[in-house]
Every structure is written in structure tokens, then in C-alpha cells.
Amino acid sequence: MTGRTAIVTGGGSGIGRAIAERLAADGHKVAVFDLQPSEIPNSHVVDVTDRDQIDKALSLVREDLGPVGVLVNCAGLDGTKRFTDLSFEAWRRVIDVNLHGVFHCVQASLPDMIEAGWGRIINISSSSTHSGQPYMAHYVSAKSAVNGLTKSLALEFGPAGITVNAIPPGFIDTPMLRRAETRNLLGGTVEDHIQRTPVRRVGRPEDIAATCSFLASEEAGYITGQLIGVNGGRNT
Ligand code: NAP
């Protein structure tokens, strides 16, 4: 069955936008939560660290599109700082957006899925969790926790008909990646990295969207608690 109500956080840009477009093309009724207003249909200005904003937007989505069946947590904030120079405020904001944002959105949406006896939760984490990343301790810590949360929720809510999986993307051509390149944070250019990527190209937001589309489908009902790397072979 298609036509579920799907929420994509961070759906205004990059990977999230491609996911929102793909789920809509698959026949889902898609709403987007993002910091900035956008022309995307059913988009809501929501900071995922703010539970009140999430709850208000969710009420509108339920009224307009029906109960939530698919949740994709894609809103993310990166950051680069030597650990000795990392302020607690910067640490906390990155953990807030990347981890607590997932906590809030999942907890607020789960009642709809439990009621329906069906749900799909897909968390976009990061390939940096495979081996760590210097100068990104806060980001990698948050994304690693999202992977752990994914596995625990999969066990807890499998009996309720809800699957929970994570996609840790690596090296996807989005504004986030290009900002990192401009600020010289990649340890080389995107072109240099392509030469170190087994499939010899940068990832596209659509690569993540295609995986997400499958994980949201009926056919993926026997896949849960998994981290599905989409990274061109950079991590195996
Ligand atoms: P992006 O283009 O910067 O998109 C991220 C979106 O999330 C932006 O629209 C951003 O809004 C929004 N956002 C940030 N904080 C938010 C908040 N508190 N509440 C609601 N929305 C918020 O980056 P992307 O590359 O597509 O990243 C998407 C996800 O993939 C992120 O979780 C990222 O960590 C993950 N990821 C990306 C890569 C990669 O290679 N690109 C690799 C690993 C993981 P603003 O633009 O207004 O800040």
C-alpha cells in the first residue's frame, strides 16, 4: 500500500529535499519540517529541538494529511572544532539538533504508528560513525547515538509493526558538503575524494532517497535495526 503520510525533517535542502521529492513521487503524502520556509508543499517551519513547534506542526499535518506512517529524520547540523577548543554550547547545539531532534520527532510521531500497527522510521546518521572523524567529536557522538537509538527502537517497536533503520551517508554532494569544501575542512577537494572513492564519484542526494524509498515500502518490512551504508564503498 502506498499513500502513507510521511514527514521528512530537514526536507528543505540537500538529502532531505531529495527524500521528500522521492517519497512524494512514490505516492506518499509528504510534509517537510525545516528551519527555513520553502515553496515545497506542506512545509512547516520547525526547529527539531523545540518540542512545542514539533507538536503544533504535527497537529496540522494530521489534520491535512492524516496520521503519520513514515518519519525520516534528516535535519542535521555539522561542526568542526579541535576538541580542546570546543565550547560546551557548540557541543550541546550539535547534540541537540542531531540527537535530541530525533528523540522529539520519533516520540511525537510514534503514537500514530502504534495505533495503526504499522510504521517506518528512517534516521539519517553519518558514515563518520564507522571510524570517527577528527575535529567532529560532537557530530560523530550525536550520530553514533542515533545509530544506537535506531537499534534499540527497532527491538522495542518491532512487535508493534514498526521498523526502524538508519542510513549513514558518506560524501554526498549537498550544500553541507560544499560548505565543508569551501572552508577547507575535507582534507582535499571533492575531486580529490572522488579518487579515493571505490565507485569513483561523489554521492547524490538521490542515492540516499532511493534507499529511503525502499526502506519506507511494504517490501522492506523484514528489515529493521539495520545501518544501511550508502557511501560508494568508502566504508565497508
Ligand atoms: P543540508 O543541505 O545542510 O540540509 C540539512 C537541512 O537540515 C537544512 O535544510 C537545515 O536548515 C536543516 N536543519 C538544520 N538544523 C535544523 C533544525 N534544528 N531543525 C530543523 N531543520 C534543521 O545538509 P545535507 O548534506 O543534506 O544533510 C542531511 C543529513 O545528512 C544531515 O543529518 C547530515 O548530518 C547527514 N549527512 C550528510 C552527509 C553529506 O555528505 N552531505 C554525510 C553524512 C551525513 P538550514 O540550512 O537552515 O540550517
UniProtKB/TrEMBL annotation:
Domain Ketoreductase residue range list: 4-170
Record InterPro entries: KR_dom, NAD(P)-bd_dom_sf, Sc_DH/Rdtase_CS, SDR, SDR_fam
SUPFAM superfamilies (UniProt xref): NAD(P)-binding Rossmann-fold domains (SSF51735)
Transmembrane annotation, as ranges: none
Listed Pfam families: adh_short_C2
Xref: PANTHER family: 3-OXOACYL-(ACYL-CARRIER-PROTEIN) REDUCTASE (PTHR42879), 3-OXOACYL-[ACYL-CARRIER-PROTEIN] REDUCTASE FABG (PTHR42879:SF2)
Protein family membership: Belongs to the short-chain dehydrogenases/reductases (SDR) family.
Name of protein: SDR family NAD(P)-dependent oxidoreductase
Annotated organism of origin: Actinocorallia longicatena
